[in-house]
Amino acid sequence: MLTARQRYAVLVASFLGILFDGFELGLMPVASLSVSKGLLASDFTAALGGEWFARFTAALMLGAAVGGILLGNLGDQIGRTRAMGWSILFYSLFATMGAFVTTQEQMLVLRFFVGLGVGGMWPNGMALVSECWPEASKPLVSGVMGAGLNMGILLLSQVARMNPITPDNWQWLFQISGLPAVLGLIVLFALPESPKWLASRNETKAPVPPLAELFQPELLRTTLSGILLSSIPLVGAWAASKWMIPWADKVVGTADATYKAATQGWWAVGATFGSFFGAQLAAWLGRRRSYLSISIGATALTAGLFQFTAPLQPGFHAVVFAQGFVSTLFFGWLALYLPEIFPTRVRASGAGLAYNFGRFATAIGVLAAGLLFAALGGDYPRVGSICAMIYALGVFASLLIREPA
User: Fold this and answer.
1) How far apart are CA 287 and CA 339, in angstroms?
2) Is 217 contained in some domain?
3) Are the C-beta atoms of residues 274 and 328 closer than 8 Å to each other?
4) Which helix H or strand E contains 158, and what residues bound it?
5) Which residues share a beta bridge with 169?
């Protein structure tokens, strides 16, 4: 058993790991156009900037999908804390290397490697916290962990407002992204391991590799439903919601270099509350009804954001806040639901596969959205509105949800 101090150390370290995860996730939406303008120089066009935004996002999502599956599996093999520490080191060190790139292609490769760590952090951190805290605390603790990701995006937006990101001044943002490596080392060498994972190593069971076990008859339905339930909010977030930030950047242009960061900041404030209350909503309404309600709300608000308001219009940031709140209720919901549906011996692998397999779909969805963006002549509202319909699929996916025993 862990002492109270050890449990809080686990919670704080995992929360910070997720927070810096969010910092990395929010980096390119707010910086991509400036990076592209700086690296492409006279070759830059607005349409090309949107296409590269989609490519950078797809590379990150693809890396996160691979990292979440492989490093989640590693967490079941060598321990939650060691896999989590390596995940933090991955996303920190490869992110800071972005400050020294000279081409878009180099940045694209680095975003993939950043994604490996970003994907690995979530399943190991969630599994570790889920196993170290009493049952009664789990909705609250899951909410805290879910909020951490969006607090990282909020932190990034405030840093970017204090020091605006421009085509001539973006490298500094990647340089400071290496600071979480210190946390990675602390996790590797000082954080206590999950007692449940340590005990599970002594279970007498046929030695089926964790990833293979997820597709055995006993767990196959659970695995497939977890993948689908995770994929819908992930694809929706990156193929639909995130277009609001480069849209704000394009509309405002050089008139106000901080407006895009303010837009991301309003979204992140809403998302921080949403990802916290998602777990509470799941505990209050039940897993199925809450997921259904979130799906309806996210569809309506995302389509409304792109159709009935626009950057610089009164009320734009209020709608951004509301969309961020509702669409990220999903992620607090997932933080509670995914760890509880998989047994301890495959918890990190199961949560990692379910959550991060959705990022394969996200990478494809973002690239498709990029092609749609080009086909529609760079029309941000039409792209965002069409892609918002992804959230509507959650109405049907909610039928697969099983309430915990």
Assistant:
1) 13
2) yes
3) yes
4) helix 138-162
5) 166
Instruction: Write the pLDDT tens digit of every residue in 174-224.
Output: 999 999 999 999 999 999 999 888 887 766 554 555 678 888 888 999 999
Question: What pLDDT was estimated at residue 207?
Answer: 52
Number of domains comprising the chain: 1
The verdict on residue 382 lying in a domain is yes
- Is 71 domain-assigned? yes
Q: Token pair of 138, please?
A: 């789990």
pLDDT at 365 over 90: no
Provide, for the chain, the percentages of residues in helix, strand and coil under a 3-state DSSP scheme, each rounded to the nearest 5.
Answer: 85, 0, 15
DSSP assignment of 35-48 = HHHHHHGGG--HHH
DSSP label at residue 346: G
Q: What is the rounded CA–CA span in Å between residue 277 and residue 140?
A: 9
Angle (nearest 5°) at CA 11 between 67 and 209: 40
Question: Any idea what the Cα angle at residue 54 is, between residues 99 and 254, rounded to 5°?
Answer: 65
Q: Are 384 and 243 in contact (CB under 8 A)?
A: yes
pTM of the model: 0.77
CA distance 233 to 295: 8
d(CA 140, CA 146): 10
- Asked whether residue 195 is assigned to any structural domain, the reply reads no
Which range scores top for mean pLDDT: 196-200, 277-281, 325-329? Answer: 325-329
The β-bridge partners of 166 are: 169
Residue 341's domain comprises 4-189+210-400
383, 368 contact by CB (below 8 A): no
